[in-house]
Amino acid sequence: MKGSAVRQVPAESCAGPNVFRAVGGAFSAPGLKGEIALHAGQCRDCKTRMFPARQRCVTCYGEIIDLVVLPRVGKLLTYTIVRLAPPGYMGPVPYVVGQVGIDNDITVLTPLVGKAPEAWRAGDAVASYALEIQGGAQDAAPAVCFSFKPASQQDLS
Amino acid sequence: MEKVHIVGIGLTKFGRFPDRSIESLAVEAISAALKDAAISWGDVELMYAAHVNQGVAAGQRVIKEIGPSGIPVVNVENCSAAASTALREAGNAIKAGAADLVVVVGFEKMAHGLLLNVIPEGDPDVAMGLTVLPMRFSLMGMKHMQRYGTTLEQFAQVSVKNHDHAVHNPKAQFPKAVTQEQVLASKMICDPITVLQCSPTTDGAAAAVLCSDVWLKKHGSSRAVQIVGSALTSDRLEQAHNEFTLDHVKRAASKLYEMTGTGPEDLDVVETHDCFTVAEILAYEALGLCKEGDGGRMIETGETRIGGRIPVNTSGGLLAKGHPLGATGLGQVAELVMQLRGEAGKRQVEGARVGLASNMGMWSSCVTMLQV
Fold it and tell me: Which residues 204-243 in chain B show a CB within 8 A of chain A?
């Protein structure tokens, strides 16, 4: 895999130890274009939502957390271009990381892919997609994680 | 309430010591602190050892070299806030009546190159690139620029100021001035933070001798500095909602001001945790040295330079003095002690009576106030 392009990820590849955040179902099986929906946790008591889900509620410490599906489209709040990454990072360098706001209560820290690093701007409309990452150690297996890319017309409709 | 005093400090030079063990660095710092306090190792009743990546029971390994006196040793890991946390715990032990004379030491030897990650390598967030250390401060910096119009030049000025201060600190790793142009032209690490806006990796050790009121009255010390109070908090907003802020610093400072009946206007000299330039700008606001959003403008006024209204990081800060994780908090406190005793040489802040150190360790914040 070259650069940071999103690759289509077949649904069946979304199982196994290399699917990040899949524990507890942090995102849905990807669609044909790699589109995924993130799964947030929601406290059954106070209804606070959090991403990713935690063992207990981040607000009231309630013990029962339900998984809820988040809208795929969000707004880029802030971003930065990372030009030097530590051992253990599996993707290309440089890469872009940002905070994406979904509805008015969720902020997701996420890789941003699908356009040149310098082209990103706060306020951009973005949508959630699966991202296959591979790199770092030569023998490291590819893994699937979540990411956001510029929202297409289809994403927005 | 029992008062706690610092009667001795000791510091190694901060830098690179490939041929020295952490034990030898720690012993050098402790020996200097004992000499400064005019006591002997045999007088010490309890020791706290702060370190981050130095292996298990590193404090006991130090004791082996300085004298296996059989006293209790407590090892403290709280990421980069380990040393200030250990100082706070030592003070609490004295207040609780557990000991009258306590040594606190912090030490670290670090790998070369920028410190980019402290999370275990196998963590999915590391593989996704979400744990790169400067990134958190880059995102805070980008947001500050968007919201308040803070500029690249203002961030760079923090590095310029702290390097200027370090020129007068013989213990500093980089006692050399840099220009704004050099800072901005240095390699971009994580926008807007360039390499000269990142603290270096550092080897070094720092120590302090703490005593109770009772001990001080009995033995006396004309150079004692009182620990007025300290506050320790952990992060809420990042852990809960991926929001990067210095809210934990703000809450720690507010708690400390409230506890001590003081405010930012009472401070004469401040050491902040400038792991990256952005962190110092945000700390001005979190500590109440200026209004929220005014951090960028504050560095431009020169108010935080030696000779200014409220000098910050007179030691050179983490950026230029160096950042040996487990020793950093005590390095800050040692600088304040020198300032409050009037022993800071060319870095001296005239008439300094009250100092504050703000030490961060990932999701923790520990602030300490000293006075004479």
Answer: 239-243
Contact status, residue A46 vs residue A37, Cβ threshold 8 Å: no
- For A109-151, the pLDDT digits (tens) are 999 999 999 999 999 999 999 998 875 555 556 778 899 999 9
- A interface with B, Cβ–Cβ below 8 Å: 20-21, 50-51, 58-59, 77-91, 95, 97-99, 105-111, 122, 133, 136, 143, 145
With beta carbons less than 8 A apart as the criterion, state whether A69 and A28 touch: yes
Please tell me what DSSP assigns to residue A149. E
CA count, 13 A, side-chain hemisphere, B193: 33
Alpha-helix runs per DSSP H in chain B? 22-37, 58-66, 82-95, 124-127, 133-148, 152-166, 180-185, 213-219, 237-241, 247-260, 277-286, 295-301, 317-321, 325-341
Cβ A81–B127 below 8 Å, yes or no? no
A117 φ/ψ sector (left φ>0, alpha ψ -120 to 50, else beta) = alpha
Look at residue A7 in the predicted model and tell me its pLDDT: 34
Asked if B190 is an interface residue toward chain A (Cβ–Cβ < 8 A), one would say yes
Residues in chain A: 157
Whether B327 shows a pLDDT value over 80: the answer reads yes
DSSP string, B44-84: --EEEEE-SSS-TTHHHHHHHHH------EEEE-BTBTHHH
pLDDT computed for residue A89 by the predictor: 87
Nearest-CB residue to B132 (from A86, A90, A145)? A86
Average pLDDT of span B267-274:
98
| Sheet with strand B269-271: strands edge to edge | B73-76, B46-50, B101-108, B204-212, B4-11, B225-234, B364-371, B354-361, B269-271
Asked whether the beta carbons of A3 and A92 are under 8 A apart, the reply is yes
Q: Which of the four pLDDT bands, split at 50, 70 and 90, describes residue B59?
A: very high
Question: What is the predicted ipTM?
Answer: 0.92
